[in-house]
Amino acid sequence: MKVGAIIQARMGSTRLPGKVMKEIKGKTVLSHVIERVKQSKLIDDIVIATTVLDRDKAIEDEALKNGVKIYRGSGDDVLARYFLAAKESNVDVIVRITSDCPLIDPHIIDEIINFYINGSYDLVTNAGADAYRTFPRGLDTEVFSYEALQTAFTNGSEMYHREHVTPYIYEHSNKIHYFKNDVDYSKYRWTLDTKEDFELIQEVYNRLYKGKHDFYLGDIIRVFKYYPDLYELNKQIEQKKVN
User: Is residue 99 classed exposed, middle or buried when 0-12, 13-18 and 19+ CB atoms within 10 A define those classes?
Assistant: First the structure.
């Protein structure tokens, strides 16, 4: 069983254009994401899925610089881009991660992969519906089968299905599991979508990153406990609602 992480990345962003190429401590956000995902013990392959648009050549260059594969596809049909990246990589199990998560936790990724492998699910996630969320935004991980993705690619006909990757699976599968943390940390926002998010993530890196990615969920939570004002930096940002 081959497990592949496919990381979505693009330069276009409504609220913070070029966010994945912004630098934190001398490295791009995308590089930090890749380095953290590489720490997973269960992922066999990493692919960056981006578009064929000229502006996303920078994404390709950064992926190759970091020693990971690149797939460039449709700028509009995200589902097709993602499926064809998975097909080309010949993976059985897909770990979906987005490039705006420079605090992604490889230990949590592996826990979710393990849960998926030892169960009988189409998809296991620590994100998904807001009602089930217990992890901070920015640690979002979805693990699903190639078959489930292929079904979504073949049958997803609504524009919403094509603009995203997993909505069709959520709508049509009864074999989905929402992976929960023992403590509810869902109030925290560690994803990168605005300049306020960037300021917060920079502050976390300034306190924890010493040239190595050796800090994880518990370490970051302790930083917020010692410096509660950090939470104020982006708490006003309206979260994207997921039903």
Answer: buried
CA distance linking residue 129 with residue 76, whole number of Å: 24
DSSP calls for 142-173: EEEEHHHHHHHHHH--SHHHHHSSSHHHHHH-
Residue type, 126: N
Nearest alpha-carbon partner for 97 in 140, 131, 56, 59: 140
Backbone angles phi, psi at 138, to 5 degrees: 115, -10
- Helix residue ranges, H only, 23-92: 29-37, 57-65, 78-89
Cut 0.90: pTM above it: yes
The dihedral over CA atoms of 197, 199, 202, 206, expressed in degrees to the nearest 10, equals -140
Residue 242 has pLDDT above 70, yes or no: no
Cβ within 8 Å of residue 20, ≥6 positions away = 9, 10, 11, 28, 29, 30, 33, 59, 99, 100, 192
Q: How confident is the model at residue 241 (pLDDT cuts 50, 70, 90)?
A: very low
